[in-house]
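Go through this:
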Amino acid sequence: MSAIDSVNTQSPPSAANAFSGISSEQFVKIMLTELSNQDPLAPNDSQAILQQISSIRSIESDLALKDTLSSMIKQNELATAGGLIGKNVLGMALDGLPIEGPVTSISNTRDGVVLNLTGGWQVKMKDVLQIGDAPTGAAQ
């Protein structure tokens, strides 16, 4: 009974996760195998199969669009951050303290784009509160 309980407690994978790793060629092979193994006296409804194919292709397309949009957002954020080099920013440093200073460079990290300020301080783009011209005499 415990083996049955452990099987029942697992949540089924979502359709997006189940098909995200499958190629179009693999999918066609699965569909052809399903069609070739069906009972000839009680064939599967071809309309239902076409709907399934359409649904899977729609999910695949949505996943590809999500990846493309995420990439575009990251590139836009990187370009925007590049325009801040030499500007004075006020924001929250990585340790949570407020910091102000000129941007000397930018870094593209796993957590997103980070502005590098004079003195070694870093501010994530999402934590920038104010942008202004660099103070006169500031290192650029």
Summary: The mean pLDDT is 80. The chain has two domains: 2-77, 83-132. DSSP finds four helices and four strands in the chain. Residues 2-77 form one domain.
